[in-house]
Every structure is written in structure tokens, then in C-alpha cells.
């Protein structure tokens, strides 16, 4: 059983009996594999503590610590009592065995209700895996911590502590559709036995970390991360530099767990839970990503539409253009038929306008402009070039759809609904490109149908001005 198969089976065992908690179980496991922490934000009674206890069973020989904090909690509850013997020797040290500094998996409920002394101590423990015990620092075996809260307060200490949790997962009550399954959930679950049979060791974590370190960050993914960073800044979503570094490590672990050597564009769908603090803003980031993943700027429907519209506007201009034909002396040239028709129209118009009075005879002449073969061939060549590039973009979107299908076959971390959203965007983009290609073909036919001069005048038209389709 390879790593992907083992993690798939382990995730399935962990989420057994939990209704609508697949995302939370799997992302909390991913965070633990990456050595990161998860914050669950939601009302009481939504299986937050149960999720943490299940995560503990995913790791072999991993000490577990759990504590509910209140406004009156003291450091001893988390870090252990003071050592009397050490005090007698003028040392301020704690007995940490069985407490948070000794734990591999920890669950801290109502974590933001702790006082500043506890939160400040937790900052170092969560980030550096060290605990200040007396005059020295004690290494901590912590793999991952899960925090739970009903709401995140807004103050300086809480903001720094909030940043220690790479994944922020909103937890809601079970939906109406899942309520029946909730009622039928058995009281006793055999989750521990199933998970323990697949539990990961420290060696497994070290091997996965080594694989993740070798995973490549492609330029396209790095560029999209940079674009998202700017987007977050514009939307006033603060994301620290430290968090971006941790995000890339998480993406590498996600790729390594699936047996890939490179971060996929689709892995970036994990970013809403890493960058945005709440459900509403995570949904906004998810929408931003879904609209961009797999679609380069040059292939965007908006850009291609502007290109097609430029050719259509030029077609309309040349189709409706009037022309006046002059002889070598500068006088208008008319055939007898054209002259008779023009005079008849002018006389009829003058009579109608006179309204019983004398009217001056006006002479007007209009004829659809005619074009030389050189002009028409130049227009058609430019359109053919654009059609070739549009066909290339259509093939590119088809390739992205194929890649997404392959990714889904080995998808371990992402919700199918989110992948459906991206797939729908790709299908919509493909349909739009096909429609734009049809419009461009129609414009091509219109240029071919322009009235022609009897003899080519050799005039080369200025190219139709449009956005460069060859741009990245």
C-alpha cells in the first residue's frame, strides 16, 4: 500500500460516523502531516472535540492532551505544576509530563478565552515546538494542535495567536439534507481500531517530509500565489510572509501525499482555508481561484471577446463604407444608369421637401466601397492567424480539463463540490471560446464577401488593432 492509498484509507476511517465533516477531518490531517495547526471555528456541539480525538488515533505512540480553557484558567492547567524540588534549589521549573509540552497531538477548546500569559507561552510552543521551562527551553514533540473557538476576538495578542493556525475551518451545524444521517449515527463507533491499524509513525512523517522537500513549485503556481497575495492586500486580508512560506510547505506535502513531484494548480484550491479568516471571505477567495485556475490571461473569455469585437467592428465599418469614384481630372465618374438613378432620387426628394414652394435641386451620390484583392487577403490572413491561436487556446482548455480529471482520481484533500466548480468554469470557458471562434469565422466570410475592384489596386490595409493574442 503506497502513501496515497494508506492516507486514503486512514482518512476514511477517521471520518466514519461523522456527518458532513469530510473536509474538516482531511484538512486537519493534512495540517498535521505538514506540522501545522488547525483552528475550528463554530458553535458548540458540532463535533470539534471529537474530530481532534480522532486525529490523535492517526499517529502511533502519540501522546494526547486536551483542555477546555476559561477566563480563570491558569498556566498550570496546560503546562504542568511547579516543581517543589526545583523551587528549593532556586529554580522555576514545571513538571510537564502528561501536559501540553509533552503532547504530540493537542486539543485546546475555547482557546481564545485564555489570558495573555497562557497565549504568549503558546505562541512559542506552537511555532518553535519549544517551551520555556525555567532558565532553559524544553523541546516539545508536538505534531499538531487543534484549537476550537466560537468566535475570534479582535485584539493584538489574539491576532498573533490566530496567525499560528495555518488552517482556519468554519464548522457549521449539520445541514437539513444531512440531518437524517445524523440521527441514524450509531452511539458507539469503532473508529480507533480502524485508524490505529493504519496509524503513522514518526518515521512515516519524516519520509513524507523528505518527499515534500523535493516537490517543485512551478512558475505558474508561484505567479498565481503572487497574484493572490496582491488580491488579498486589495481586499484587506492580512497574510503574513511567514504564512506564505507555510502555505507552500503545505502544498508540497499535499502533492507528495498524492505521489506527485510538482505542485498542481488544483492544489491551490486549499488556499481559501489558509488565507481568509471566515467562511464568507473564504468563499470569496475560492471564487477568485475557481475563475482563474487553468485559464491563462490570454485565454480569458473577456480578452478573447475584445479581440473578436475588434474584427467585427472593422468588418461592419468596411461593409457599410461608402465610396466616391473620381476620374483623372478630379471629377465624379458616373455610369448612365448611376446618373439616372441619382437624379431621380434627388428630384423626388426635392419635391417632397418643397411643401408647395420652389426647391433647389440637390445632387447626391452614394456607392458601397469596393476593395482590392490585396486588402481582402490581408484581412483574411489576420483573421486566420487569430483563429489558429484561438484553436490553440481551445486545445489548452481541453488539456486542463483532462488534467483536472486525472487530479480528481487521486484527490485526497479537496471537496468534490469545489472541484466541480472549477470544472464548470473550464467547461464554460471552452464553450465561450467555441462561440467566439464561430463569430470570428463569420467575420472572415464577411470580409471575403466585400465588393471587389475590377483590378487590384495593391493597397495593403493597416492591421486591425486588438490585444495581442500571443501574450502570456
UniProtKB/TrEMBL annotation:
Domain AAA+ ATPase: 34-175
Domain of life: Bacteria
InterPro entries found in the cross-reference section: AAA+_ATPase, MoxR, P-loop_NTPase, RavA-like_AAA_lid, RavA_ATPases
Xref: PANTHER family: ATPASE RAVA
Record's protein name: MoxR-like ATPase
Source species taxonomy: Bacteria, Pseudomonadati, Pseudomonadota, Betaproteobacteria, Nitrosomonadales
Amino acid at each position: 500500500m503506497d502513501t496515497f492509498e494508506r492516507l486514503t484509507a486512514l482518512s476514511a476511517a477517521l471520518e466514519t460516523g461523522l456527518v458532513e465533516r469530510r473536509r474538516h477531518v482531511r484538512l486537519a490531517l493534512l495540517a498535521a502531516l505538514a506540522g501545522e495547526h488547525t483552528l475550528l471555528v463554530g458553535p458548540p456541539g458540532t463535533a470539534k472535540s471529537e474530530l481532534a480525538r480522532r486525529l490523535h488515533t492517526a499517529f502511533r505512540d502519540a501522546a494526547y492532551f486536551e483542555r477546555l480553557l476559561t477566563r480563570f484558567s491558569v498556566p498550570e492547567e496546560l503546562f504542568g505544576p511547579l516543581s517543589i524540588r526545583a523551587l528549593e534549589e532556586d529554580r522555576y521549573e514545571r513538571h510537564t509530563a502528561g501536559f501540553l509540552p509533552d503532547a504530540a497531538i493537542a486539543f485546546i477548546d475555547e482557546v481564545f478565552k485564555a489570558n495573555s500569559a497562557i497565549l504568549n507561552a503558546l505562541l512559542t510552543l506552537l511555532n518553535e515546538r519549544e517551551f520555556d521551562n525555567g532558565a532553559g527551553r524544553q523541546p516539545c514533540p508536538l505534531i499538531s494542535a487543534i484549537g476550537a473557538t466560537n468566535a475570534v476576538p479582535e485584539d493584538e495578542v489574539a491576532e498573533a495567536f490566530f496567525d499560528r493556525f495555518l488552517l482556519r475551518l468554519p464548522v457549521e451545524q449539520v445541514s437539513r439534507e444531512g440531518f437524517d444521517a445524523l440521527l441514524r449515527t450509531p452511539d458507539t463507533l469503532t473508529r480507533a481500531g480502524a485508524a490505529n491499524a493504519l496509524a503513522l509513525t514518526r518515521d512515516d512523517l519524516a519520509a513524507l517530509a523528505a518527499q515534500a522537500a523535493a516537490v517543485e513549485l512551478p512558475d505558474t503556481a508561484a505567479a498565481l500565489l503572487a497574484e493572490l497575495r496582491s488580491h488579498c492586500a486589495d481586499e484587506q486580508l492580512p497574510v503574513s510572509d511567514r504564512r506564505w512560506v507555510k502555505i507552500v510547505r503545505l502544498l508540497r506535502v499535499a502533492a507528495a501525499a498524492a505521489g506527485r513531484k510538482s505542485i498542481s494548480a488544483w492544489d491551490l484550491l486549499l488556499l481559501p482555508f489558509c488565507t481568509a479568516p471566515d467562511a464568507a471571505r473564504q468563499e470569496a477567495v475560492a471564487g477568485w481561484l475557481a475563475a482563474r485556475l487553468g485559464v491563462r490571461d490570454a485565454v480569458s473569455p473577456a480578452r478573447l471577446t475584445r479581440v473578436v469585437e475588434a474584427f467585427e467592428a472593422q468588418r461592419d465599418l468596411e461593409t457599410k463604407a461608402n465610396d466616391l469614384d473620381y476620374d483623372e481630372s478630379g471629377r465624379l465618374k458616373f455610369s448612365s444608369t448611376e446618373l439616372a438613378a441619382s437624379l431621380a432620387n434627388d428630384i423626388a426628394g426635392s419635391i417632397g421637401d418643397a411643401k408647395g414652394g420652389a426647391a433647389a435641386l440637390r445632387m447626391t451620390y452614394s456607392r458601397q466601397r469596393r476593395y482590392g484583392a490585396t486588402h481582402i487577403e490581408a484581412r483574411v490572413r489576420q483573421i486566420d492567424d487569430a483563429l489558429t491561436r484561438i484553436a490553440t487556446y481551445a486545445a489548452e482548455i481541453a488539456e486542463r480539463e483532462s488534467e483536472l480529471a486525472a487530479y480528481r482520481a487521486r484527490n485526497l484533500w479537496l471537496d468534490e463540490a469545489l472541484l466541480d466548480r472549477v470544472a464548470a468554469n473550464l467547461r464554460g470557458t471552452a464553450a465561450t471560446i467555441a462561440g467566439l471562434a464561430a463569430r470570428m469565422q463569420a467575420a472572415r466570410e464577411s470580409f471575403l464577401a466585400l465588393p471587389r475592384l475590377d483590378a487590384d489596386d495593391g493597397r495593403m490595409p493597416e492591421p486591425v488593432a486588438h490585444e495581442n493574442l500571443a501574450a502570456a
